[in-house]
Amino acid sequence: RDSRVVERKKYGKAKARRSFQFSKR
To answer: Which pLDDT score, from 0 to 100, does residue 22 have?
Structure first.
């Protein structure tokens, strides 16, 4: 789970569909 957060948090732009969720984090 942590590995996913790190990826989404770094590649927030790449994962546009989840960027809004991890954008605040």
So the answer is: 56
Contact 19, 13 (CB under 8 A): yes
Buried b / exposed e over 1-25, threshold 16 CB at 10 Å, is: eeeeeeebeeebeebeeeeeebeee
| pLDDT tens for each residue of 1-25 | 555 556 555 555 555 565 555 555 5
Provide the residue ranges of all domains of the chain, joining segments of one domain with +.
1-25
In whole angstroms, what is the distance from residue 11 CA to residue 21 CA?
12
Q: Which residue has the tokens 């790190």?
A: 6
